[in-house]
Design brief:
By secondary structure, this protein is an alpha+beta fold. Helices cover 43% and strands 24% of the residues. The protein has 15 helices and 17 strands. The strands form four sheets. The chain has a five-stranded mixed beta sheet with strand order 3-2-1-4-8, with helices on one face. It is elongated. It starts with a helix and ends with a strand.
Length: 511
C-alpha cells in the first residue's frame, strides 16, 4: 500500500459490482465477505469492465502547459471521438512516452459516462457508502510488473473471461498499449454454445461442464461444441492480435496469458498455444496472499495488489464519484445544516408557495432524469450498432483486398502457363523441319548449337556443301518459306582447298 493507505486504513475491501462479490484483506489474508458494511477504517476499491469505457489515444502539442493539459485533452476527446456535448463525461488519462515524436505528447485516454457508473454501483453504495478508487480493469495489470511478478520487458497479451465481459489487454515494455472488450464473456459463450448445440441448455449445466469437465478426457455430447466455440474464440483473438501488430508496430508477442473468473480444468492456455503458435500460460499468479484454499477471481487479487503500490508504481485513473466527505464543518452539507439550524425560524416565514414550487421542481427533475435515461439507452444502442457495422465494413474491405491480390496472382500464373504451352516452340520439332530442308538441297550439317539471351532463342548450324550455290539456294528457300517464323542470318561461305568443300554458319532466330 501507499503510505496514505497504510496509515489511514486497517483493511481493504475489493468490489466486483457486476456479480456483487466482495473480498476483504487484512495483512496478507483474503476472505470472502458476503455481507459487507460501511467502516470508516476500510479502504474500498473497485473496477470498471472494459466495455464500460471508451479507450483512445490522443496527441497533444508539447507547447501546452501542464496546467492546461486536462482541458486540451478534454476538448480534443470531444472533437475526435464525436462525444455527445450534452453529456459531461468523466475523462482520465495516462501519458505514454514516444521518443520519436519531438512535437507532441501522447496519452491513453479513458472516457466514462457518469450514468454508467451510478447504475453499476447502485447496490454497492447502499452497502459500503464510499468507493475510494474505481479503476479501469486493464490498468490493474500494471501491478504485475511493479511487483515484478512478471519481470520480462517483452510484449505480453492478457485474455480474461468474466461472467458479463471479456477483454484483451496488451502491455509492452511493462507499459499499457491497448485493450479491447470481446464478445466472449461467459454468458455470451453460453448463448453461442446454445446456437452451436442447436437447442437451449440450462445455464447451470453449461457452467458445470465449463468448470469441471476437461475436453481431453470427457466423452460428453457437449465436447465437440465446446471445441467449436473455443476455435471461434481463438480466431477472434488472432484477428485482434493481427490488428494490434499492424496498428502499434509490434513485431511479435512474447507471451499470452489466458484465464477466467470461473475456475476451469480445461487447459485453455495449451489450446491457445496450439492455435496461435505463441507461448501461452494460465492467467494465474502468486500474489503473496493466502485465501484458505478458496479460488479468488484474478481481478479481485489484482485490486488488492494495486493498493499495496505507491503512486509512482501504479496507473492513477480514478473514476469514483463516491468520495469520502471532508470534516463536517468543511462539507457543503455540514454548512447547510448549520445554516439551516441558524435560520430555521426565518425558514418558517417563507410563503407556502415556495415549498410547492420546490416540490414541483423535484418532480420535474425526476421526469427529466427518466427521459434522459431512456434517450441515452437508445443512443448507446445505435452507437454500438454503427460501430459494429463499421467494423464489419473494414473486415469486408480487407477480405476483398486479399481476394483481389489472389486473383491477380492466379491470373498472371495462368497467363505464363498459357504462354509456355502455346507459344514456346519445341526444339525437336524445329530441328526436324529444318533437317528435312537441308536434305532437299544436299547440304550437310556438321554441328549445331542452341542458346537463349533474354527472350531471344537462337539455333546455329555449321553447314557443309560441295557447292556454294546449294547453300545459297537453301537460305533463299528457308527465308521465303519461314518468313514469319524464323529469321535467318548467313554472314559468309568459305571454301576449303584441302577438302574441296564449302563451309558456312547459319543462324536461325525463332520469332
Amino acid at each position: 500500500m501507499s503510505t496514505q493507505i497504510q496509515y489511514s486504513f486497517s483493511s481493504v475491501l475489493s468490489v466486483n459490482p457486476y456479480n456483487d462479490t466482495y473480498i476483504n484483506s487484512i495483512s496478507s489474508f483474503l476472505n470472502v465477505n458476503n455481507s459487507p458494511a460501511f467502516s470508516k477504517d476500510q479502504f474500498v476499491i473497485s473496477y470498471l469492465n472494459t466495455k464500460e469505457f471508451i479507450n483512445a489515444h490522443i496527441e497533444i502539442s508539447k507547447n501546452i502547459p501542464d496546467e492546461d493539459i486536462f482541458d486540451a485533452i478534454n476538448s480534443k476527446a470531444y472533437d475526435e471521438l464525436a462525444l455527445d456535448n450534452a453529456i459531461e463525461y468523466q475523462i482520465q488519462y495516462i501519458e505514454t512516452f514516444n521518443n520519436l515524436d519531438e512535437d507532441n505528447r501522447h496519452f491513453h485516454v479513458f472516457i466514462v459516462d457518469p450514468l454508467e457508473v451510478t447504475q453499476t454501483y447502485t447496490n454497492t453504495i447502499e452497502r459500503v457508502k464510499y468507493l475510494d478508487i474505481i479503476i479501469p480493469a486493464p490498468l490493474l495489470l500494471k501491478s504485475l510488473y511493479s511487483k515484478e511478478i512478471i519481470d520480462s520487458n517483452g510484449v505480453h497479451c492478457f485474455i480474461y473471461f468474466q461472467e458479463n465481459d471479456a477483454f484483451i489487454t496488451i502491455y509492452g515494455d511493462k507499459e499499457f498499449i491497448y485493450t479491447k472488450s470481446i464478445k466472449y464473456s461467459i454468458i455470451e459463450m453460453y448463448e453461442r454454445f446454445c446456437e452451436l448445440y442447436g437447442e437451449r441448455v440450462e445455464y447451470s449445466s453449461f457452467v458445470d461442464f465449463y468448470k469441471n469437465e476437461s475436453l481431453k478426457e470427457t466423452n460428453s455430447d457437449y465436447k465437440q461444441y465446446f471445441i467449436k466455440l473455443y476455435k471461434e474464440l481463438f480466431a477472434n483473438i488472432n484477428d485482434i492480435l493481427t490488428y494490434a501488430k499492424r496498428a502499434f508496430e509490434i513485431e511479435s508477442f512474447e507471451h499470452l496469458y489466458i484465464g477466467s473468473q470461473l475456475e476451469t480444468v480445461t487447459k485453455l492456455d495449451e489450446m491457445l498455444a496450439v492455435e496461435l503458435n505463441i507461448k501461452s500460460s494460465e492467467f494465474t499468479f502468486d500474489y503473496g496472499f493466502e485465501s484458505n484454499g478458496v479460488y479468488v477471481d484474478q481481478l479481485h487479487a489484482l485490486m488488492h495488489v494495486y493498493t499495496t503500490l505507491s503512486e509512482s508504481q501504479r496507473y492513477e485513473s480514478n473514476f469514483t464519484v463516491y468520495h469520502r466527505p471532508p470534516a463536517f464543518v468543511k462539507r457543503e452539507s455540514g454548512r447547510l445544516i448549520l445554516l439551516t439550524a441558524a435560520s430555521v425560524a426565518l425558514a418558517f416565514a417563507y410563503p407556502i408557495t415556495y415549498w410547492v414550487l420546490t416540490y414541483a421542481q423535484v418532480l420535474q427533475e425526476d421526469i427529466l432524469k427518466q427521459e434522459y435515461k431512456e434517450i441515452h439507452n437508445i443512443k448507446i444502442t445505435r452507437q454500438s450498432t454503427i460501430k459494429n457495422k463499421e467494423a464489419d465494413k473494414v473486415n469486408s474491405l480487407a477480405l476483398l483486398e486479399i481476394e483481389k491480390k489472389e486473383y491477380i496472382t492466379k491470373k498472371n500464373t495462368l497467363i505464363k502457363i498459357h504462354d509456355v504451352k502455346v507459344n514456346y516452340p519445341m526444339k525437336a520439332q524445329l530441328l526436324s523441319i529444318l533437317t528435312k530442308d537441308l536434305n532437299k538441297f544436299s547440304v550437310r550439317m556438321e554441328s549445331l548449337s542452341y542458346g537463349e539471351i533474354d527472350t531471344s532463342k537462337t539455333f546455329q548450324f555449321d553447314l557443309v556443301s560441295s557447292k556454294d550455290r546449294k547453300i545459297t539456294k537453301l537460305v533463299q528457300y528457308l527465308t521465303k518459306t519461314y518468313e514469319n517464323r524464323f529469321k535467318f542470318e548467313l554472314e559468309s561461305i568459305d571454301y576449303d582447298d584441302e577438302s574441296k568443300v564449302y563451309f558456312s554458319q547459319l543462324k536461325v532466330n525463332i520469332l
